[in-house]
Amino acid sequence: MNTFVIHEHEALRAGWHHDLRLERNGVLKSWAVPKGVPEEPGVRRRAAQVEDHDLGYGKFEGEIPKGQYGAGKVRIWDRGTYDTKFWSNKKIEVTFHGKRLRGEYILRWMEAMKCWLLWKR
Fold it and tell me: What is the tens place of the pLDDT at every residue in 20-41?
């Protein structure tokens, strides 16, 4: 079973958003979700895939100094484990077992929109 973390991030440059991070192959695959991870079924949110992070970053809370990538305040909004139902380059289906997030979620690459969408099934 893999771990996930959702950081609430008040970035100086990008503003408030959630960072969804999924443990996969020894790193945290990461997406910035500008309007936050949806908690209600059917609500779809854009998600921008960003660089992978090392696993240790999953425990980080604090302030990223001005001038560094992602500068601003970071706190853990939720964490837990997840089961992978399906994972490809264009679609990811997982079941979250977190304190706040529970249930099935889908991340899907939308070619026409050139972005990922995230929603709760």
Answer: 999 999 999 999 999 999 999 9
